[in-house]
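request received
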Amino acid sequence: MRAPDNPVFAKGDVLLAVENVSLGFGGVKALTDVSFDIRKSEIRAIIGPNGAGKTSMLNCINGFYYPTEGRITFKGVKRPKMRPYEAARGGIARTFQNVALFKSMSTLDNIMAGRSIKMHSNFFWQLFRHGPAMKEEVEHRRFVEEIIDFLEIQHIRKTPVGRLPYGLQKRVELGRALAMEPELLLLDEPMAGMNLEEKEDMSRFILEVNQQYGTTIALIEHDMGVVMDLSDRVVVLEYGRKIADGTPSEVKGDQRVIDAYLGVAH
Amino acid sequence: MLYREAGQFKTNYVADSAIFPLRQDRIGLGLIIIAAYALAFLGNSFLLQAVMIPFLVFSLASIGLNILTGYTGLLSLGTGAFMGVGAYACYKLMTAFPEVNVIVWIFVSGFFSAAIGALFGLPSLRIKGFYLAVATLAAQFFLQWCFIRIPWLVNYNVSGALDAPLRTLFGTPIMGPNATPQTRYLVVLTIVILLTWLASNLVHGRIGRMWIAIRDMDLAAELMGIRPLQTKLLAFAVSSYYCGVAGALLVFLWYGGAEYDVFNINQSFFILFMVIIGGLGSLIGSFFGAALIFILPIVLGIVLPAIMSPFGISVGADVIEHLRFMIVGALIIFFLIVEPHGLARLWQIGKQKLLVWPFPY
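response:
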């Protein structure tokens, strides 16, 4: 794999900026006036108690929802209202809280499906599975095999993912997102429901993706140990509002965060 | 013991991503194709005309519906109508331009049903499941209405029926009253093999993965950058192309002539049952489904009297007819209980068991 090289955006520049974003569904306000930014090549954690609006935030970023107010700037350009596939083509990949793999396909095909946007051979060659179509298939297979090696899932290459245990499914889902060579990778609770060993593996993969390929990562996670160890900066949401933003140690000491998690004495 | 994976090493990605990675499978497929061609010279005209030609035609239509319903997960009840579009388009084309070979027109007529199919596939962006089935039902009724009400489609023929004109290939009649079942069988077989091969290439490549992605998890597919509308419309178009060609073959190379009512809603259901029983999302399942639903009743009609007569039981043709329905119905339920994923899944399990036989795993 090679890092997506974009000379305009060096490490540390703002890759994605969320400015005064509000999101409402009828009378329910999921997000209220949230602003933060994600810088190139950092690991940015979004945390908060249940129902704080973390997943809604990710859904806004990758185009499932369009904010009712405020704006999202990606790579310095204000984003128009867009469909999720347009966000994907713009370089935003994502994994889901509850695994959303293509269950009947093998691990290999799932990750190959993640390469769909990179494949361009036309319908005619696809019909004959020959010439450019086959050449492209092999080229991308090589790339996918690198991801498979990286995630250490060689042994389940041809297993339909529906039959895999949960931890491995999460890993395949990460692989599928990586296949898109994203500039921004959104991980929605990548370690939910995992045991310690699986969490350690997943943490290692996240760090390696970030360090080797310089991929910017935004992750939602409930395991505070993981969040504090992995992330460069943390943004804390509660009831759809931002209550803290900063390095893990700053956030950890913030009284409002402690109150949000532990409750306040009345 | 002959069916083993051992010793067949793949040393490059082309070999590893082959559609039939196992040498034994490739040999088996070759033998089946040779046998199918040999049947043209060994089988009698009843076997070819009443069993094999319709079996192949229905298999082709099932492949078409399977691409849409099995691979892309979009339920359609318009199959009969899309077959009709192919048949009527083929009729118009070959009577308007008789100098062009009819084989060309059979393939071209599929494009007309592809266009109509894509048009009626537009609602699929917003609705799915039963609701989409109802939307395609509109196609079924509307198109059938067109077949009845637009006399231009049958060249103002007073009977309102399509009839197969005499057409030749290399001087041999392949269509019309003078064409023998043998030549028609060979033409149908070649077309079905060619189109099955193309379908198999499609579903095993990028496009097939996009279809399955839409079926399995459409939200995630969209997040992979897969455009839902284009992918679904492509499935509708390809599916309807296959149905259209099947429809043209059905009228002109099997029946020799037909009226609008062969493309009614029953035909749509008939093909849908074949796809479900054969196996959703499987090309070989389309053949199995067509065999079970179409050939099995014929076989029973011959076999039942034969096994009853030695016991001195002589039954009337009507009783045999009833028994046929009962047995086929019971078998359909039996197979669906044993393997809800269809005969193709049973076939796959059987092959996997055979690979490690006599050991359980």
